[in-house]
Amino acid sequence: MRAVRGRDGGGDERTTGHALLVAGTTSDAGKSVVTAGICRWLARQGIKVAPFKAQNMSLNSVVTPDGAEIGRAQAMQAAACGIEPRAAMNPVLLKPGSDRRSQVVVRGRAVGEADAVGYRAYRDRLRRVALDSLAELRDDYDVVVCEGAGSPAEINLRAGDIANMGLARAAGLPVLLVGDIDRGGVFAALHGTLALMEPADQALVAGFVINKFRGAPELLAPGLDMIRDLTGRPVHGVLPWLDGLWIDVEDSLGLAADRGPARPPLGAQSLRVAVVRLPRISNFTDIDALGVEPGVDVRFVTRPHEVDDADLVILPGSRATVDDLAWLRERGLADAVVRRAAAGRPVLGVCGGYQMLAREIHDDVESGAGRVPGLGLLPTRVAFAREKTLGRPSGTAYGRPVAGYEIHHGVTTVDDPSEGEPFLDGRRVGAVWGTTWHGALENDAFRRAFLSDVAARAGRAFTPAPGTDFAAERTARLDALGDLVAEHMDTGALLRLIEQGAPSGLPVVPPGGVRPLAG
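Structure for Cobyric acid synthase, as requested:
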């Protein structure tokens, strides 16, 4: 087994790559960002590294160059590694369509729908797919940094687990457990998570990482010593709170009211963008590129008056187009969007949001609702196909090059080509635009031209900054994550874990076995 070294490190011939699992005490504890930070730090050392998440539940996905659909967080982590994403990095993706059912995507292709009980029928197959995918990556890379899912202490799900300790046990992975101190109760979360594991699982948990710290280090220090004494495991890093960390998140738990880097207060001539926060919102990362534009105020909204007050309203993607359209009508948001369009005020629909703008939606696939009237703002009709469309299209709009990706069951046709004009793969009529392309706003020249048009129609004296570079902003965020690891984690201990695995003889923490502290 080759030692993990950088460009000057040497080492013996490798038979298979090393791997590490980053688990978390809860969803949104910071697993994705810690994984990305470790990936970035390792890549800087000249180590050939890749990310992996065996099973991901997310409505934020992307299409890889090999035509597979995977979670956007894994694509972001691949960018941190300096490599292209591929299907093996997220072999199982669950896309919730309701509170009880999810679409099951295996190696980038949808294979069916399942509820929690029906999912058990997939379990053995998915376990093998996950392990084979990890083995594939370990053959191709020196290190694979794996991310867990949810919490490893979901004791009711442990028997069928393929993403947390089930994966760690099967592949012999050392585990770092991440806790979010900003929630409060981080030491209870770390200790309790460990105590709920069976001894064989505990034996792989080698240490802790405390995330989102913004207090006085001297007040935290005694707790670090206590958790080490109580569990026999050190805290390998305390990562400070990082403002403006708008990297690609997995679900709406990470969806703030505004997304974008910290910046000065917006002036009276700022451009106000309202993004409707649909119940099954998907790929809301499409909006991130707007958040980097100076003078653009992006907010996620759920009430009609918030739509009325905006210069641009965006209907984003949805995993449940017909159901979310019904929600728009129930909330009065549909009427508000129609009113503003009638007044010539800008509206943009992306993917599911584009489908809602149609005259009619025929859906016997996703919702089973049959024919449903749309908002009627574009001269289009939508029919849902059983096979999902996945692609990475490119073209032009406003005379600028545009590249994006598409993930949808709905196929849109135009009633009358004389109504409106083409817009990317979609349609534009007056101040209403629609497209299935995700990621289009990440194209700098196109984004600036589109926002200039919106500003003119909204009567705003707004001019996009010519130097805004979204790709550079994203790279800076990934570099910031690598800096966090370099500056605030014990990187020597991290390398030893990757090379040697979890130390032997780690003590077992029994449930309820906390001994009294002196004093």
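Confidence is low (pLDDT under 50) at residues 5-14, 257-265, 513-519.
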